[in-house]
Structures are given as C-alpha cells and as structure tokens.
C-alpha cells in the first residue's frame, strides 16, 4: 500500500481542510487530475471520518490521504475564563450562550486510530504534533504512508526520528492553522522558499511544500526549492467540489488581506483579516481546543447571518488568486502553468 509521494503523476496534493471545506468529492476530483486527494479527519467523529473514507473509495481507485490533528496538552483554565469574559458582551449582542465549562477533548483520536488500523488508508498525515512511537509503529505495520506536518527544521528532525515517510513543510504563507507541534509555540516567519532548503539540510525525506501557492510560478518555485510535490488548500476553496460556504468563497476575493491570529481557536491560524481578529486577537490565550469550543457559538451565529466581519475565514496569502470551476481543471491548469 506504500505510496511514493515523489512519483505522483501530477505533484499536487489537496490540503486537508477541517471544518467542512475538504469533501470526498474534492479528494476524488484532485485524484482525477493526477494528484493526491485528501480528507480532513479532524473536527469530526471517528464514524463520520469512516463514512467519508467509504465515499472516497467509491469514487476513486487511486490513492488518497486522511489527516488527523494530534491532541495536545490542556490550556490554562484561568486564561480561557478571562477570554470568555472578554467575549461575553459580543455573545449577548448576538443572543448566543458561551460554554461555561469545557471538558477534555482529544478529537476522538484513539477511536480514529482504531478505525485506520482496522481498515488502513493509503496515506495518513498528522498536524499539531506527532503520534507516539507506538502509534507510529502500528500505522507503519499496516502499510500506511505517514506524513508529518512541520514548520521548523527542529520539528523535521523529530518527525524523521519517529520514522515518518515524508514531511509537509508548512510555510507562514499558509491559510488555516499553523502546524506547530506545541500550541504555545510562536510560528516561524521564514518564508516557504527559504524554509524548504532549511529543512532539507536536516533530512533527506521527501518534502511537500505548503503555503501561499496560488499560481503556476509559485508551484514551480516550490518544486525548484526542493519539494517533490505541492499542497494546495486556499487555491481549491472556491472550486465546485469545495465545502466552503458561499460567504467564505466570496470573501476570498472581496477582503484585501490576511492575518495570523489565535482569536478563533487558541492556535495560530491565518485567515482573512476582519473585525473579530482585530478586536480579540491580542487577548486570545494559547489554548486549543478550549478557545475553539469557546468561540464556536459566536462563529456559528456569524456564519448563519453571513457576517464576514465575525466569521473565521481561513485563507493563505494568495487567496485573491483562488478560482472557481471544477477542481480537476484548477489543478490541471496550475500544473500546466507551472511547467511553462
């Protein structure tokens, strides 16, 4: 079952975008283009993940991947409580109730691993950290190719020592959560085209480039910088098969810029800059998933009213280049442009 990521017909991987944008249809469409489709296993139950895997298997006979968020350590309860009080007036304004208690949440990690060991998938990637040595060995034993998301050479060394098969090197230009291995880490600012050779200095593993890749020139530059493939997320958000909301799709070309913030989830994440980020970003504690659960009612209410000033709108720095149409055509056109 081992998948060679350096032998893809088209070296394009669909970024696993949790929370709805990644769909089985999107994964299958990227596969049809010759790339590698991905499902986001995070922020859903193990059963829901299994159902999406079954849907992908029905629609493609090519390899695909699944991504999981690695659970971290609990955040500072007092800091979370203080942030709750800061958000409370806004919650009252919109008629929503913030959770007063947030219990432990490992994102169904153990159950998801059990599913993936009992019924293996071709590729499994990890974000927010690394599995234990025992977990990695178990996944390796069933023949699944394992990919670790890294943001620094130090994280790359740790992933190689654990026996990962490839690394997704995430630059600061990437939309959505930064994949730092500790929630309290300050994300690095070394641009992707400099981060790739810095990681290459410490490992010979195949590298996947992620972050701000919106056109053919950017894709070609990442491959020249040492990547065997590129990972596209924001570039596919407006595609026909994306699960992104209409408001999110429109905001990608209407809002002018992005910012990295902990305001919505407690983890650094790049999104379209809006009022919520400006109001609350400086005060959000490094606590994930506690802040994610705390702000969930506010974000849901904003989504219902299509309020892009208060929604979380994950987007990379090349968001203005995101195109509409079938994902298969978007990938094919980008690859053709990259080849010159």
From TrEMBL:
It holds the Pfam family NMO. Keywords: Detoxification, Flavoprotein, FMN, Monooxygenase, Nucleotide-binding, Oxidoreductase. It catalyses: 3 propionate 3-nitronate + 3 O2 + H2O = 3 3-oxopropanoate + 2 nitrate + nitrite + H2O2 + 3 H(+). InterPro entries: Aldolase_TIM, NMO. CDD domains: NPD_like (cd04730). One of its GO terms (molecular function) is nucleotide binding. One of its GO terms (biological process) is response to toxic substance. Its cofactor is FMN. The keyword Nucleotide-binding applies. Nitronate monooxygenase that uses molecular oxygen to catalyze the oxidative denitrification of alkyl nitronates. Acts on propionate 3-nitronate (P3N), the presumed physiological substrate. Probably functions in the detoxification of P3N, a metabolic poison produced by plants and fungi as a defense mechanism. Belongs to the nitronate monooxygenase family. NMO class I subfamily. This is Probable nitronate monooxygenase. The lineage of its organism: Bacteria, Bacillati, Actinomycetota, Actinomycetes, Kitasatosporales.
């Amino acid at each position: 079952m081992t998948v060679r990521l350096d032998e893809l017909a088209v070296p394009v991987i669909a970024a696993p975008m949790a929370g709805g944008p990644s769909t089985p249809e999107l994964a299958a469409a990227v596969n049809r283009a010759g790339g590698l489709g991905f499902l986001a296993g995070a922020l859903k139950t193990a059963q829901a993940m299994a159902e999406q895997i079954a849907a992908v298997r029905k629609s493609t006979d090519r390899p695909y991947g699944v991504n999981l968020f690695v659970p971290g350590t609990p955040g500072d309860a007092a800091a979370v409580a203080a942030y709750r009080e800061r958000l409370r007036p806004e919650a009252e304004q919109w008629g929503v109730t913030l959770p007063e208690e947030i219990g432990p949440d490992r994102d169904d990690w153990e159950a998801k691993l059990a599913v993936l060991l009992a019924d293996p998938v071709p590729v499994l990637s990890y974000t927010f950290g690394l599995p234990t040595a025992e977990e990695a060995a178990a996944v390796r034993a069933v023949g699944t190719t394992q990919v670790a998301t890294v943001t620094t050479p130090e994280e790359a060394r740790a992933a190689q020592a654990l026996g990962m098969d490839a690394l997704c090197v995430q630059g600061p230009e990437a939309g959505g959560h930064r994949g730092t291995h500790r929630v309290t880490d300050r994300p690095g600012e070394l641009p992707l085209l400099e981060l790739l050779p810095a990681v290459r200095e410490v490992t010979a593993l195949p590298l996947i480039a992620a972050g701000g890749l919106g056109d053919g020139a950017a894709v070609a530059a990442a491959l020249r910088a040492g990547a065997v493939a590129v990972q596209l997320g924001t570039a596919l958000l407006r595609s026909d098969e994306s699960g992104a909301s209409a408001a999110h799709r429109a905001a990608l070309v209407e809002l002018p810029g992005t910012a990295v913030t902990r305001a919505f989830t407690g983890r650094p994440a790049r999104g379209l800059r809006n009022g919520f980020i400006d109001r609350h970003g400086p005060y959000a504690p490094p606590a994930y998933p506690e802040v994610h659960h705390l702000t969930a009612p506010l974000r849901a209410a904003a989504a219902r009213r299509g309020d892009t000033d208060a929604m979380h709108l994950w987007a990379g720095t090349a968001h203005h280049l995101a195109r509409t149409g079938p994902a298969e055509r978007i990938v094919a056109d980008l690859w053709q442009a990259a080849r010159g």
